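Changelog-linked ticket: calcium ion example.
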Amino acid sequence: MRSRPIILAATAALGIGLAGGVASAAGTGSSKMFQKLDTDGNGTVSLEEARAGQGQWFARLDTDGDGTISREEFQVTADKRFAKYDLDGNGEVTPDEVAQAKAKWKNKTTN
Ligand SMILES: [Ca+2]
Ligand SMILES: [Ca+2]
Ligand SMILES: [Ca+2]
C-alpha cells in the first residue's frame, strides 16, 4: 500500500507525457516538462512542439516500435521507473529512496 502513490505518480507522469497537453503540463506546475517541450525556448509550447514532445514520449514507450503502446509496454516503462526509485529492490519505495534517487540523478546531470 505504501508504494502505491509512487506508482500512481509515475503513471500520471507518463499519462501527461502521452496526453502532451500544454495545459496539463503547465497545470501540474511541471516546469521541467514545459522546458522540455519548449524546444526553441521562446516561453510557449506550440502545437508542433507539443506534438514533437508527444512523439518522443510515444517512441520511448513503444518499445517494439509497432506504432501502438500496449498495456504491457506501458507497464514495463512504469515498472522501470518504479525500479529506479526502489533502490534496495524490496518492492517498496520510501520517501527516503525517492530523495536518494533524485539526488543521484541530479549528480548525474550536473557532472
Ligand atoms: Ca516554443
Ligand atoms: Ca508497441
Ligand atoms: Ca525500497
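Closing comment: Example verified and attached. Residues 4-19 form the longest helix (16 residues). Helices lie at 4-19, 22-27, 31-37, 47-61, 71-85, 95-110.
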